[in-house]
Amino acid sequence: MMPSAGDSTSPAPALASPPLPSTSRHSSAPMTGQERPFQGAILTPARWCVIMGSLSVVALILAVVCLQLGTQYIGLGKLVGVLSSALFDQPTENEAIKTTSVILLQVRLPRVFLGFLVGVCLASVGVALQALLRNPLADPYVLGVSSGAALGVAVAVLFGIGTTVLAFSLLPVCGFVGGLVALLVVYRMAATYDRLPIHSVLLAGVILNAIFSALIMFITSIMEPNRSFGMMAWLMGSLTAPAYPALAALSVYLLAGLFLLFKQVRVLNILALGEEPARSLGIDTERAKRVIFLVSALLTGAVVSVSGMIGFIGMIIPHAVRLVIGADHRLLLPASALVGGIFLMVADTMARTFFVPSEVPVGIITALAGGPFFVYLLVWRKDRLV
After folding, report:
1. Which domain covers residue 274, as residue numbers?
2. How many beta carbons lie within 10 A of that of residue 293, not counting itself?
3. Dist CA 369 CA 358 (whole Å)
4. Could you tell me if 206 and 137 are in contact, meaning their C-beta atoms sit under 8 angstroms apart?
5. CATH code of 189's domain
């Protein structure tokens, strides 16, 4: 039987991988909101498979629905026909089917997949940072990497890269470089004597966010009106259908980063207890913090470079999932990843469907959905934020 995450007694020493702390559900000791798991939330292989399988089925069903919705509705039968024809390379002479195929395969399918992948990354990084920083308000933007990536894109657009034929391939690179520079600056500001204090990371991220945001606003204000409008829309979060080669390259990079992050689930469980308990259990906390910090920052920089500033996913999704399934990161991290992907995929569909023929930035939809939930947590569930 796997141990429960979030219980209150001290963990028993182990020779191999240290177990999570465990206690009886009938213990009379008081528990804080962050420690109180969902009743019966003992992690077993069967429970893990049921939850992850259910979320995977929901993600697949909603992906099909998102592919159907848009300016032109595509019925399920036509959707299956177009996908099967593309999969088995069956040409068609019907002009209507050709038009539907272009809409589905060149616009909606890559956009839905990109939205799901970006949501997975933002939610996963949010879970990791909340455990690493032991701060329930932490999200992928707390490190200042998102602002750095946005600044890199803003500088590129200012110098005309956005109007060249190489814009599609170079703008993400500029965003990634900006995020990498922000990462290095935060690391140098926070690191002292080969250590990486948590409070220094938070402070450095806040300072860098303020500086980069001011520079972004300055660059936007001196741009030509057309570029300025496009830049502001991108800063609010925007998903556009990428070409399949670019999407494949981005997917490989992000999946590799997610793999490295998922390997840290047991370390995240122990770090959530505090650095001293983690050291007493034999964890090299400084190395673990560097690895998680680097992977999270690089994932965030890459995501922001292609999607803009999409907020609240990394902060709200981990909270919502933790309220339901408990705080064991072996389940919390992959479940939050799927929920984050589902959330952004649906939010982007709403952004391009509800206001046809106009389209609103998806960051507005995520903020309108995530803001009230955060207020609910802050006002009525204070115990969950301690």
Report:
1. 111-385
2. 22
3. 20
4. no
5. 1.10.3470.10
